[in-house]
Amino acid sequence: EIVLTQSPGTLSLSPGERATLSCRASQSVSSSYLAWYQQKPGQAPRLLIYGASSRATGIPDRFSGSGSGTDFTLTISRLEPEDFAVYYCQQYGSSPETFGPGTKVDIK
Amino acid sequence: QVQLQESGPGLVKPSQTLSLTCTVSGGSISSGGYYWSWIRQHPGKGLEWIGYIYYSGSTYYNPSLKSRVTISVDTSKNQFSLKLSSVTAADTAVYYCARVGPYSGYDYWGQGTLVTVSS
Description:
The structure holds 2 protein chains of 2 kinds.
Chain A: E1 4-7, E2 10-13, E3 19-25, E4 34-39, E5 46-50, E6 54-55, E7 63-68, E8 71-76, E9 86-91, E10 98-99, E11 103-107
Parallel strand pairs in A: 2-11
Antiparallel strand pairs in A: 1-3, 3-8, 4-5, 4-9, 5-6, 7-8, 9-10, 9-11
Chain B: E1 3-7, E2 11-12, E3 18-25, E4 35-41, E5 47-53, E6 59-61, E7 69-74, E8 79-84, E9 93-101, E10 105-109, E11 113-117
Parallel strand pairs in B: 2-11
Antiparallel strand pairs in B: 1-3, 3-8, 4-5, 4-9, 5-6, 7-8, 9-10, 9-11
């Protein structure tokens, strides 16, 4: 099973700042089958990035993903008020699919 | 716009079977190209993949739950279902159904339904 580790656990930033979230895998993620999701309280996760770097439909271009192998990054170029949430990475290239524990981005 | 909606009991007794159904609208399960999945989230915790099914009936389960899980599909009703047997308090969670493409991640989710295991 591929274990995903996310850092930091919590990121305290102000609107307008840049957020950099890390996701590290215990072994190489097949074909960059790595996705990022945003989850707000009481809501289902929302797909942001798939294939490590492709934005999902309707996702603003301030969200970008990069990385390959075992190291991946989600960058939010300028935080908007609606971006404060929990972010999860997920690998879907190997069974069982697994999620990271999440990074909470909160308002400083 | 594809929409998914979970339904089923919100309270299940220990040792019984949890049964949930996901109804899909705005798209046909039998059109292929996508897998239909169940994912759960323990209260205040992260996400756990349970498994998924293709319209043909092929299933893939998380090994940690495989002995207790059955996912089935009813293409005539455009629904798929989850059964989890011998539940304990550790199975208390919000259960989500979702659509997943082979390369594109989980792009549509239901709103989630809280299932509590308690006597």
